[in-house]
Amino acid sequence: MSDADYQRYAHATLSAVEKQCDAWLDQDVIDVDTHRSGGLLELAFPNGSKIILNTQPPLKELWLAARGGGFHFRWSEGQWVDTRDGQGLMHCLSHHASQQAGMPLRFAMDATAA
């Protein structure tokens, strides 16, 4: 994967996550505050817990840090895939966000966004 492709996929993913959080706020589902600084996106939940998504350009990976652990994802066949168990990023993010929010939350990546 080229550096430009990595940047495009990573940016689209962080933007999709931010967009979903904004939609939940607009729909009065949950107030997940987002803060983005360059390639780092922080999600802050009402209970004070956080999830961090961080780009790792030298490795061409996205890293996720949640209460439940840390995960590394590489782009493969149109999605970010966990380097250990092959799980998709959006599935993993949905799982950990739901746990930290205390309610079901689902993130999805529009395939056309990347």
Automatic annotation (TrEMBL):
UniProt key word Metal-binding: yes
Listed SUPFAM superfamilies? Frataxin/Nqo15-like
Reply yes or no: does the keyword Metal-binding apply: yes
Give UniProt keywords alphabetically.
Answer: Iron, Metal-binding
Q: Which InterPro entries match?
A: CyaY, Frataxin/CyaY, Frataxin/CyaY_sf, Frataxin_CS
Q: Report the domain of life of the source organism.
A: Bacteria
For this protein, the record's Pfam families field holds:
Frataxin_Cyay
| Main function | Involved in iron-sulfur (Fe-S) cluster assembly. May act as a regulator of Fe-S biogenesis.
The record's family statement is: Belongs to the frataxin family.
NCBIfam families registered for this protein in UniProt: FeS_CyaY
> What is this protein's name?
Iron-sulfur cluster assembly protein CyaY
What organism does the UniProt record list as the source? Ideonella paludis
